[in-house]
Amino acid sequence: MGPEGWQHLRGRPTLIRRSARALDRAEAARTVAWMRHEVGLDGDGPAPGPATPG
């Protein structure tokens, strides 16, 4: 649900349909794999953090 107005920013609540891409399970799996890699949850150890002055 979301507003029905301009760019879904204002207005009465209405059903907003999902795009075909939002329903693509393969795309979702790739996104989750990428996110897990980025945060270090893919088994390669923790992601490197920011450099700290020493």
What does this structure look like?
With 54 residues, the chain is an alpha+beta fold. It has a domain of 33 residues. Helices cover 28% and strands 7% of the residues. The protein has one helix and two strands; from the N terminus they run ββα. A two-stranded antiparallel ribbon has the order 1-2. The longest helix is centred in the middle third of the chain and has 15 residues. It starts with a strand and ends in a 15-residue tail after the last helix. The mean pLDDT is 81.
The helix-strand sequence is EEH
Q: What strand line-up does the widest sheet have?
A: 1-2
Helix content: 25-40%
Annotation field: number of helices: 1
For the largest beta-sheet, the strand count, sense and barrel status come to: 2 strands, antiparallel
The rough form would be described as elongated
Mean pLDDT: 81
